[in-house]
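Appendix B, record 7
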Amino acid sequence: MENIYHITTSKEWEVAKKDGFYVASSLPIEGFIHCSKAEQVDGVLDRYYKGVIGLVKLVIDTAKLNHKLVYELAPSINQEFPHIYGSINIDAVIDVVVLN
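Structure tokens (predicted):
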């Protein structure tokens, strides 16, 4: 079992629990949901979520995902990040960590 992580708001997570799946705003625009490996989470928080309140970290079991997972290079920082090409099924989220 490998875990990956996705940052979202507690409000968006509450909607996902009601819907039975999670869709990030990037999915219809870019075709995938941005995720991170454990060692990448702090950098993502620093680059994209500075000053944002009400955040949670979804802990995702990759073995439970219903959609394709692809690791792709982010050239701006020369690291591969996990991308989910579809919604995240709720049962793949094995923990939700409140960040602030």
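Remarks on this record: DSSP finds three helices and eight strands in the chain. The chain has a mean pLDDT of 95.
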